[in-house]
Structure prediction request, 152 residues.
Amino acid sequence: MVKTISKLEELLILTKEYISKSSEEELHHKANPETWSKKEIIGHLIDSGINNIQRFTAIQFEKEPYRIRPMKQVELVKVNDYQHAEIEELLAFLISINIRVKNLMSLQNAETLSTSIELYTKGNMSDLRYLMEDYVAHFEQHVNQIIKPKSC
Prediction:
């Protein structure tokens, strides 16, 4: 988990630096009504953090295999109205949630990391290690959407 935790720390620093240099206009911009703005992507990462904290903890005391349910990401972003939230609030929340995620990751051992889970569909099995590593890979994918300019 050391490598995974280090990657998450690196991504949080990168995100914080980028957001602090960005204009409200850039963060609020939507290429079209169907896509998320950078603020909404940050909101989605907040929702993902909340959802995964619940998963990472429940996996350790619920009956195995723990069944992962998909989150309603589009609905959560809309209902939370991240597009109109203050960026300072979103960034502080994102960092706070992910400090808790990093702490949860650091508490794991070989036994807990091998706890079995069922991913979304019956019979699609994995473990807590995969879920934690996938969380950071998902986080990185969205950070790249935020910080990398779109080619025309």
Q: What stands out?
A: The chain has a mean pLDDT of 94. The chain has one domain: 2-147.
